[in-house]
Here is the input.
Amino acid sequence: MDAPVSATADRYINRELSLLEFNRRVLDQAHDTQTPLLERLRFLCISSTNLDEFFEIRVASLKQRHESGAPAAGPDSMTPRAVLETVRRQCLSLVGKQYALLNDVLLPQLAAEGIRFSRREDWNAEQKKWLNGFFLREIVPVLTPLTLDPSRPFPRILNKSLNFIVRLNGKDAFGRRRHRAIVQAPRSLPRIIRLPEKLAERGGEHYVFLSSIIHSHVGELFPGMDVDGCYQFRVTRNSNLYVDDEEVDDLVRALEGELAASRYGEAVRLEVSQNCPADLCDFLLDHFALDRTDMFAVDGPVNLNRLATICETAQRPELCFPTFTPGVPVELKSGENIFTVLRKQNVLLHHPYQSFTPVIDFIATAAADPEVLAIKQTLYRSGADSPIVDRLVEAARAGKEVTVIIELMARFDEAANIALANRLQEAGAHVVYGLVGYKTHAKMAMVVRREQGRIVRYVHLATGIYHPGTARLYTDYGFMSSNRKLGEDVHRVFMQLTSLTATGALDRVLTAPFSLFAALRERIRNETRNARDGLDARIIAKVNALVEPQIIELLYEASAAGVRIDLIVRGICSLRPGVAGLSENIRIRSIVGRFLEHSRVYYFLNGGNEEFFCSSADWMDRNFFRRTELCFPIRQRPLKERLRRDLQLFLEDNCQAWALRGDGRYERLSPGDGPRLSAQAALLAELATGSQGEPAQEMQPATQRGTH
Here is the structure.
């Protein structure tokens, strides 16, 4: 297996700063007046959630590296301190834009549409009466106000929870003077409360923040004392899990313990209301061992992503994206058994434009089919209540050999994965956890069926997880086949994951950490050789992230040789495109739209013998060297034309595409006076209605597309 190497600093964009650039692109969707109003609010919430995770994981790691005196971690050679300082400046700007957008644009526009957030000073007598009753009935019973003194120290504050610091004046019931108290809002309380219709002035929907209700009534929690101030705060903690999976005897028990501890990890960020006095801010910072550079004073609720509930509860479909019915490929509409269809042809699904139901049906049919002997599947973030899991449970209870490889350490889904593993084991399935040191990220399922005295393998391979909810929000490809050689390859990969033995030579698929990296490296070099020999050479890759330095260096070399390279990178990208003498022939764009772009597709011209691959792997160190990944070829001409068509749409998009410049900045592309083209809208129109459109003939270089 190959190992990563270092490279010259100025050839790379820092990954943390690139990730912040992605969050700016998400926030821009909330600014976009072409986006429906409630969807704009949703994008604002997504940008807030993204920033939370950025602090929990990336900033937490940077702080640890800085405090330990560790050197720069990436090939860009920025020290942890330099990155933290830049992150601080950029996050201050980003947070300021989030709240300005909320207060100055979205809330007024929502109010104009009859969706109002009532401020305390605007409540009328009837509303005050109802809210006081709500406070006494629903809130007080679950609150535990804590006055601070030497015998009652500062309480433990849960990661990202809503809290209030209260300034008191007066004496308690025991005659002792008190100055400060903490009120924690349990997560069982809704953060946004809808007023009854009869109390909604001017009709529409009226909402009140939980924080406003607590602010208004906090004095009732401290009878006999005066409340001189009440201020929201929220602390973000380090959420990295530290399980030495090579040392523990029971990974599940160790992970459960670490999950509990991570809720109270080291603080990395403090958010406070903008009007919180300096002395109370300093008190909080001192308690959490933070300094002023870790504090963000905000003009509004300290947790913006709670507003996402409005997108679900407000019954205003005209303010949301139009609903659509995912399409189903013609070959699956005949009513034939899925195995009968797959014996005739392979099927390529493109979610969410096409339905995820055929994938569920694939497992459901296998579970009920008496000729099916075994089902094997990897699960990464499926959730314990997934219909896929329901079918696997049914199959196990029916006596079929069911083997499920579950990756427990899928970040922020660890608890759900433990519950999923327990449920499957109780049903009699064989549950195998991800490999020690190598996160199982491959997405694959295999059904073993006896047909006319012989064994036939049917496979489903995918770029995304087995989760119907995700399949409605993320773009991913799923490939279904009964190809013998492909089935044998997948069988060997499953055997490797369960028995840890070598697969031997595989005919069709590429895997990490074994063959994938070397195969990609060789294909890039092949395009470089072809360009130097005067042949047309072309590389297109659609991935979520590109940071691996050896791949980047090979792409630089290919560009210098004259290879035309288009990269569609949704998120982090460390490669600098369009730099004279380095990357003139590389163009990079990011698509940010209604759906989260998640599919990974690799294309190589290969001297005219074109190769198309789909994969679970991004072009990152971790995917190549520290995860088990699967990359599978698409060889049938009609399916290759499908992929060609899709890639062409993304290369022509001038509505939701951003071009990366050599300095690390992104510029949104515009159609100008020309025709508008949104790849996602075009795919919705084509696939959700069952129309495939005409296959694209040539994938043009980025320099010929759109105006900036």
Remarks:
- The first strand starts at residue 115 and ends at 117.
- The CA atoms of residues 338 and 361 lie 8 Å apart.
- The chain has three domains: 9-316, 330-508, 511-704.
